[in-house]
Design goal:
The structure is a homodimer. The first copy, chain A, is α/β, with parallel strands linked by helices. Helices cover 37% and strands 21% of the residues of chain A. In chain A, a hairpin with a 3-residue loop joins strand 14 and strand 15.
């Protein structure tokens, strides 16, 4: 155990959807890494639950295969893997019937005084019935909590239905709505940069910031998720959660403490201050689009309708929005948000563009002076880059040059960043909700998104197309250029 | 010629003291480097003048030896050296008699329409008589200028006498008072950082800056310069010029243009706004000291009196001052200045210490949050480092860590920094006085320094001692610690 790792309390983690894709790819590897680091007490248990009739030994093999496939070779340690598998138990059960639940209750009864976490790694339709079964079998202890994976509904109404159903069984202080973007090092570094440095907060406002861009770009298409995706779309699948959360953390006022409700109160204020976009202005402030055939990374890529196997769809695979926050700090500063599938590359980033200097004293010599930018990359390579202008070395005049100051964490510290789920799972066990969404935040986000969706339908707003492998439709470029700004990747 | 090098106009550079140490070590190598870079026109001439009865060929050998000794092997190029030596001419002459001056006039007559620069690399007592001879022999053309090396007098009165004598022959616009610190890349980068970035100017004031430290430390002693040094001391030799110039550039208001008089007007305002230190408060605000025997770099080092060969001296080899600038931007922000010989290492730096964050939201988790610092190193390795606080990577709480963001120029650009004299000599030829001191600046600096000297004598202020190889006397530590601050090297 590293000297800097503090063990969490003993816990039982019950993973519904324990044989699913998320469990195999993310949850089990993340728990293994924390175990390897010595953060998990020796008697903590991981209990997989799903419909599949597996034995404890079968599940051990599932866990073993998951680690084999999704843990880097360098992190594989036979002894640690054996110890980890010994933590894993399994109970077949599902929400639709009572079978298996008494056995689950019995299994858990030996840890009644521990932290007990129910992880709902299943479709949201099951959140309500699962909560009911948990209640029916008396599984909720004072130390219990529940983790909800997205999507939390497809609009305000359905999200409220889910939240209400869960709220009948769990207090809000027990509910952990997970958005793995918030577990990323870069996002937490945004907090550190803003609130642990004297330098940034004084210039973090409309006086000094020109505009902000938040991009979550995927290069993959919908693949075999087309059926689900077509009922959702880029706005609900990515913008309403990931991008709006990043927006909140970028724009919020300093909370008085780095604690769950203090932070979430400030995020909520941002969501409430977003200027409404609806029938009147959606065509000016938003762009929706669908990818058509093109090429990604030099290889031909099919279009969305082909991927879907349909003639027609009104679902957007790309959305760009010009958002504004109507408060003292941000009035007049546009936040350009965009997300899409089959874009030029996989990248998620927040780009804070500072205003130009107010007066160029180097006018004759240097021409236009580059603007400062702070670039927070969430993926693929997490890191923060501050771009500053310095003098080009040499005995001539005052030539200026913009250079990147790189705070890439892996490089600086010689360590690899932990996966977001590692942190977030440990926060669940620790009972720290700071990086999880509160119900009123989810509701407020939908209150902003729903009128945009409604406007698209009401106005029959055009669905643009863009070739797979591009940066979206030209309408997205037009959206930002009308404002005299340029998307980050074009501004390079 | 590099595509980014712009040739200067044809010129004749007359170096009085042409066979001296400064010419050999600095001026000739700097000119050679500019020649190598293609910045010097083919017909430009360098004319050495001194008492020594050398021929042109003799001087060619002197130049050749100087380059051999003081140019890095990698920069030596036989063809370029030969070309450079061909530019060099020589004329024996001195200010005390007329011999040689008619020949110098004849030599220069063939370049009457060129830029003509007289470089006074001689003792300041000769500045007046040299100027008179130059006038007597009609050598001042419209394109003429004169370069004055420090020291410019030993107090306000003697400096004014020198400036007045030079002013009888040259206009102020023709006078280039050189301080090679101002030619350093880092100093010019201070201007670029402050005035070409939106980020820094808004926090460059007493609201956000806690205090500033300026240190010019030498590890060498007085060596065989003791005779001269004992009539001068650290205050006159280093503080009144180098440190006060750095103070001005750090503290000045943004000039409206990066032009000579705009910049010098702002520097002058800083000098005028310095709070007076005199009989009343010199013992609180200043420390003077002399090195005694000690060890430097593991080797025993003699004390100042031994170096001097005397029983007693009242000359300081170290001075530390707590300065304050009485204006809106800086009221209440102490500027700690210090310079000395035989200190722990050779280093010159400006350290801008920002205030702590106004409120620590990470209180429970992170303890005290480090303050931001901007460190401008002038030597030995030029560079700028911005210290910021980021999150320590890892899935635990919000541990914070201060990391240095390095803007070291050589590293960033893969080039070596030009010597300060290279830039300054080219500025002389270009007629750009931005990085040179105006007469009223020199006078204002003395007006602040003279009362401190007078107070030391009037109050018989104690001369502390410090062991060679230390960071000065404990009284210097006490000076800053009384204010609740700590010298940079101790704060590491």
């Amino acid at each position: 155990m590293s000297s800097r790792t503090i063990q969490v309390s003993p816990f039982d983690l019950v993973v519904f959807g324990g044989t699913g894709d998320l469990a195999a790819r993310k949850l089990l590897p993340a728990l293994y890494h924390r175990d390897l680091a010595g953060q998990i007490p020796h008697d903590a248990r991981i209990i997989g639950v799903s419909r599949r009739p597996l034995s404890r030994e079968d599940y051990g093999r599932f866990v073993c295969e998951a680690l084999d496939q999704f843990v880097k070779p360098a992190d594989k340690n036979a002894e640690a893997i054996e110890r980890f598998i010994a933590r894993a138990d399994y109970q077949p059960a599902d929400a639709s019937k009572e079978a298996g639940w008494p056995e689950l209750a019995k299994l858990l009864s030996s840890g009644a005084d521990r932290v007990r976490a129910f992880y709902f790694a299943v479709a949201p339709e099951l959140f309500a019935p699962l909560s009911q079964r948990i209640q029916q079998f008396g599984l909720v202890t004072p130390g219990s909590r529940v983790v909800l994976e997205k999507p939390l509904g497809k609009d305000g109404e359905s999200a409220r239905a889910v939240n209400d159903a869960v709220a009948e069984v769990f207090n809000e202080s027990q509910v952990f709505r997970i958005d793995h973007y918030l577990g990323k090092e870069t996002v937490q570094n945004l907090m550190a940069l803003r609130f642990a440095n004297r330098l940034f907060e004084p210039v973090w406002n409309s006086t000094h910031i020109d505009h902000v861009q938040i991009t979550v770009a995927e290069d993959i298409g919908v693949g075999d998720r087309g059926g689900y995706y077509d009922t959702s779309g880029a706005m609900r699948d990515m913008l309403q959660n990931h991008i709006m959360q990043l927006l909140c953390l970028t724009a919020m006022e300093p909370p008085d403490a780095f604690e769950a409700d203090a932070v979430r109160d400030e995020k909520l204020k941002v969501l409430k201050a977003l200027k409404r976009i609806d029938d009147r202005n959606a065509d000016q402030m938003t762009v929706r689009a669908q990818y058509r055939a093109g090429s990604v990374g030099g290889k031909p890529a099919t279009g969305y309708l082909d991927d879907l196997g349909r003639e027609d769809s009104q679902t957007e695979t790309f959305v760009a929005i010009r958002a504004e926050i109507a408060n003292w700090r941000w009035a007049g500063v546009p936040f350009f948000l965009r997300t899409g599938k089959r874009l030029a590359k996989r990248t998620s980033e927040i780009v804070v563009n500072f205003r130009p200097i107010s007066h160029n004293i180097f006018d004759q010599m240097a021409g236009r002076v580059s603007q400062n930018r702070l670039i927070l990359r969430l993926q693929p390579d997490e890191g923060v880059t501050l771009e500053v202008t310095i003098k080009d070395p040499g005995p001539g005049g005052m030539r200026l040059r913009r250079i990147p100051l790189d705070m890439s964490f892996a490089e600086t510290f010689g360590v690899s960043n932990p996966d977001a789920y590692e942190r977030l799972l440990m926060d669940v066990i620790r009972g720290n909700q700071t990086l999880f969404m509160r119900a009123d935040e989810v509701a407020a986000a939908w209150r902003w998104v729903d009128p945009i969706h409604a406007a698209w339908i009401h106005n029959d707003q055009r669905i643009h197309t863009y070739p797979a492998g591009s940066w979206g439709p030209s309408a997205s470029v037009a959206l930002i250029e009308r404002d005299g700004r340029t998307w980050f990747e074009d501004a390079e």
